[in-house]
């Protein structure tokens, strides 16, 4: 349930409500909006006579959230959330659209610096690149691990671009968080609840990708796992789902953008690279994502896609990426956004 405080409620009154909820075994989460403060309370309602909360000074009303996800829901927080990726870069709430671009995998120092330089020059705001790679085959390239993280940190130093990279294992959260600005939870790990809880204990921005066989509600439940541990900096990512269609690697579910926007206050990013699996479909779907209301894009870009160690067929060449950026600016302007 949520306890909506009156606009005039004082800090002391908010504190009293929180204290009372805690005494009855409830977990509490505060959301301070422009107009009102809302206290999310998660626990066993049979342990508490609700009237005793309603009577406390400063309380406006108690609302029961019927959705299984609570902190993630629009009912809990009406205003769009702005997630701070770094001190100077944020995403959400109609702010600048954030373009995250770079190779699928960090393959080597030289290759990464080349890619980072190219995406920076074309106007990307974040560098992407996997050091720990979730591959379908155990015999495929698994990523450079910590060495790859070091190259990402070096690329950030050289270009000034913040870095998003995947963390696959609870045992590596601390290590990856040491190097990355934003932690990516890959599609295959969307329902790895221990991993979600672990990144929920950090204060890093999290990019949570939708599993290829997961519903939007399941994605929101996974975000709830992260938020319930205290980390509110969650960005959701639509990256395509499995359908009967075989013409593309996945079916990019752009419905997810307006649906998530309605159900949740969290920012939404779209990844048309994994969503289509083919580079020449990527620009159209990237433009469509912005038109649909996405707050950002994740795009795979490789200096020489034909030499890529993973996902070369869906990676844009730097020049294609640069011309796409120009088109994205036009679509962004048409929907009242900036790139
Ligand atoms: C990736 O971003 O390279 C990746 C593996 O994505 P996904 O988890 O969406 O398949
Ligand atoms: Mn990839």
Automatic annotation (TrEMBL):
GO molecular function: aldehyde-lyase activity; transferase activity
Name of the featured protein: 3-deoxy-7-phosphoheptulonate synthase
Alphabetized Pfam families for the sequence: DAHP_snth_FXD (PF18152), DAHP_synth_1 (PF00793)
Lineage of the organism: Bacteria, Bacillati, Saganbacteria
GO biological process, one term: aromatic amino acid family biosynthetic process
Organism name: candidate division WOR-1 bacterium RIFCSPLOWO2_02_FULL_46_20
Statement: the UniProt record of this protein carries the keyword Transferase: yes
Domain DAHP synthase ferredoxin-like residue range list: 1-67
Keywords, alphabetical: Transferase
Domain of life from the UniProt record: Bacteria
InterPro entries xrefs: Aldolase_TIM, Class-I_DAHP_synthase, DAHP1/KDSA, DAHP_snth_FXD, DAHP_syn_2
Residues covered by the DAHP synthetase I/KDSA domain: 81-330
């Amino acid at each position: 349930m949520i306890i909506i405080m009156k606009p005039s409620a004082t800090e002391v009154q908010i504190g009293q409500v929180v204290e009372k909820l805690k005494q009855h075994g409830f977990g509490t989460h505060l959301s301070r909006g422009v107009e009102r403060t809302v206290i999310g309370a998660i626990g066993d309602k049979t342990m508490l006579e609700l009237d005793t909360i309603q009577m406390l000074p400063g309380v406006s009303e108690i609302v029961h959230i019927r959705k299984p996800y609570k902190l993630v829901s629009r009912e809990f927080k009406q205003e769009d959330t702005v997630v701070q990726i770094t001190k100077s870069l944020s995403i959400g709430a109609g702010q600048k659209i954030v373009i995250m671009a770079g190779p699928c995998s960090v393959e080597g120092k030289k290759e990464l610096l080349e890619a980072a330089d190219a995406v920076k020059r074309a106007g990307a705001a974040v560098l992407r690149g996997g050091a720990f790679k979730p591959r379908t085959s155990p015999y495929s390239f698994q990523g450079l691990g910590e060495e790859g993280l070091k190259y990402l940190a070096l690329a950030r130093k050289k270009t000034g671009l913040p870095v998003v990279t995947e963390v696959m294992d609870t045992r590596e959260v601390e290590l990856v968080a040491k190097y990355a600005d934003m932690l990516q939870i890959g599609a295959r790990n969307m329902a790895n609840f221990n991993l979600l809880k672990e990144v929920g204990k950090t204060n890093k921005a999290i990019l949570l990708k939708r599993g290829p066989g997961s519903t939007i509600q399941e994605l929101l439940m996974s975000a709830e796992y992260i938020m319930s541990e205290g980390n509110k900096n969650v960005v959701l990512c639509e990256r395509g789902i499995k359908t009967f269609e075989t013409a593309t690697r996945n079916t990019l579910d752009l419905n997810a953008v307006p649906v998530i926007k309605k159900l949740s206050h969290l920012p939404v990013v779209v990844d048309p690279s994994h969503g289509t699996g083919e580079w020449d479909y990527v620009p159209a779907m990237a433009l469509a994502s912005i038109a649909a209301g996405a707050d950002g894009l994740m795009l795979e870009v490789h200096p020489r896609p034909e030499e890529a160690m993973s996902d070369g067929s869906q990676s844009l060449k730097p020049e294609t990426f640069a011309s796409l950026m120009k088109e994205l600016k036009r679509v962004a302007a048409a929907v009242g956004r900036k790139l």
